[in-house]
Amino acid sequence: MLKNFLLVSFRSIWRNKAFSVINIMGLVVGISAALMIYQVIRYENSFDKFEKNSDRIYRVVTDVDFNGTVIKNDGVAAPVAGVIKDRMPAVETVAPFFINDITRRITANGKDFKNGRDVVYADKNYFDIFPYQWLSGTAASSLREPFTVVLTAGRAEKYFPGLSPAAVLGKEIIYDDSIRATVSGVVADLKQPTDFKYMEFISLSTLQSSGLREMYALDYWNNTNAASQLLIRLHASASAKDVTGELAKLRETNKIEDQTKNVLQLQPFGDIHFNRDYTAEGTPAAVTRLYALSLVACLLLLLAGINFVNLTTAQAARRARETGIRKSLGSSFPQLLLQFLSETLLLTFLAGVLSVLLTPLFLVFFQSFLPKGLTTEMLYDWQTALFLLGLCLGITLLAGIYPALVLARFQPVVVLKTQVQAAGGKVWLRKTLTVSQFVVAQFFIIATLIVSKQVHYSLSRDPGFRKDAIVTVRTPQRELGPGERNTFQEKLAAIPEIAMVSQGGTPPLFGGFMSMTFRYQQGEKEIAQNMELRYGDSLYAKLYNLKIIAGRNIRSTDTIAEWVLNEKAVTSLGFRHPQDIIGVVVENHPVVGVVKDFVTSSTRKEIPALALSSAALWQHRTMHVLLRPSGENGIVWKHALEKMEKAWKEVYPRETFSYDFLDKSIAKLYSEEQRTVQLLNWCAGLAFFISALGLLGLVIFTTNQRTREIGIRKVLGATVWQVVALLTTDFMKLVGIAFVLAIPLSWWAMQHWLSSYVYRTSMSWWIFAIGGGLMALLALATMSIKTIRAAWSNPVNALKSE
Fold this sequence. Notes:
The chain is built from 25 helices and 24 strands. By secondary structure, it is an alpha+beta fold. It has 3 domains: 54-274, no CATH class; 426-450 and 671-802, no CATH class; 470-668, no CATH class. The strands form 3 sheets. Strands 1, 2, 3, 4, 5, 6, 7, 8, 9, 10, 11, 12 and 13 form a 13-stranded mixed β-sheet that branches. Strands 16, 17, 18, 19, 20, 21 and 22 form a 7-stranded mixed β-sheet that branches. The chain has a 4-stranded antiparallel β-sheet with strand order 15-23-14-24. The longest helix is centred in the last third of the chain and has 35 residues, at 671-705. The chain is globular, with a radius of gyration of 34 Å. Residues 420-425 have low confidence and may be disordered. This is ABC-type antimicrobial peptide transport system, permease component. Residues 295-412, 685-795 form the ABC3 transporter permease C-terminal domain. One of its GO terms (cellular component) is plasma membrane. Keywords: Cell membrane, Membrane, Transmembrane, Transmembrane helix.
């Protein structure tokens, strides 16, 4: 029986090649999208699943409260680890480690290497949390002494190529010419996905024995830094709630007093990869993004299923006689049902095979917003095969059951005596499903236009400062003294292609934050206000064209001596007019000027109260360079950058020169939105492609049914365009209905999305008009493939065929 089912199914698919190809193409797109998104979700959920007793592992994090403004920090004050170890018996393992965000150069085997954030200071407890395989050395002894380092096998091969793990022991590695560490162990690289991708582990005791104790604030309770990380593992009988309560008492026990209220929290280990409030060291996955991708996959599969239902039921009249003959020869209802379902399964299986072949291409096309570690190898394992099998069976049942019921229910007496014109009279169902398809496609088109408009608004909005033709250059973290930096600034200022150079901290707008609490006594009332900070010399405001509306600019000093506030800071401290605050002493320093408000972060956040000051020299680590006009083909900027690199090499001969254009750095703040635009573009394209396939199939079916009518109308004088209008009017009505239904849906969804921006664009009427017009043009173009050809056909041939 199975052989017979398959044989008949192949014959039916081959007999209706056009409709079969349309169905398979739609299913291929839907299944490929589902496969790709399944791999993304599976990959994201595989992070850090290999640690022992991971359900008992937590990261200690800090909520920093600045007078009601809560800032979540994934680090802790350095002394917290020691107190937990000494006073909390519920904690089984305490594993503090410090991320090395200082080192710029590593010297090994006589060669210099650039370094990222993959070096940490840790002790043996780190390797109790993470089960590394030791190739040489041991966890117990390798990090016991100061100035020792453990390498991963990949890093050992990079530094000492050709040497075995045992031979690497005893080799010396130098960090920034200041720390000389001896290799005391080598561990195998972690193969599983993890957010803790460190490759060099310097003994934690090195911080105590080197000049880094102050830099990493090992003795300061008031310094919370993301570089200071703390992992703990609780005893099996311990309660995380009880430990959290004990953490809340640490500051009181140690009599910590400062301007902020820090609250220590326990973050579950499994939450690290999915929590963007406490930023993971890797790339945290947005749960909402995974939900959105899952919804996209379901919608594309739904559209492909609608195509199958529409085209199969539309052809029911053709297969009615087949059903009647089968029933008259003894076929039962269950046999016919299985026969038609087997055809659906065969089509779905063919689409599944093609999807497995095409999904690697999809992974390439979508790589800009897919996890970097996702590879095509995951496509070819038993889990994916099981998912694909379940997916094909699910599609077969959901998309094939209704058409199979329609075909199997035809009565032999009726169909053998008369010609069935429609699938059980359910023409309204096909129209409803077609409208549903175009509602989805129309929604994606409108959403794409609105998100693109918001991105354009964010990038083109006047930020309140100059952002074009500005280059920022970070000087080395460790310098012999400010003389090197001053020399570098002088060399830059002497370059003819450079208009101005300023020493300072971060640019006016960047992705992070620096703040402190300002207190001002207004009569008997004390006003406390959290303020953003920017540091720079006297040229900083001039270079960025910050508009001073009262008082004067700051003077260059080597410490904080005076403030320039923005308008928001003035009003937040209780002053009505900018000139009223000039000369007022705030936080022990006078306010000498007020600048007009400027943007300090993305358009998601409100412009904050802000203070600008000259500061300690160690805070002036960035050179802000204003270039002259770029000239033809950007030749001026090219020469400027070449001369800047030459000046850098003269001052910092062993350091790598790097720079950033400020406008490009600002654009990176909206990379998430730009990826969303790309995703919506693909979704809109794929949704319309599947919908257009279904529309084309229905147009082909309708045109074939009306061949004789078209011939008669042409003989009676109908023009080509009149025939085209006749064939397309009904379908364009469905597209119009879909547009009307998509307007409130897209308006509601995008209004909700835009509400996350403090400064946002408006949803103009012309966006919906363009979306509807674009959909209408695409639908007409799709239908014209068949309708114009039918309208141009010779009526004689049409009438002869009847």
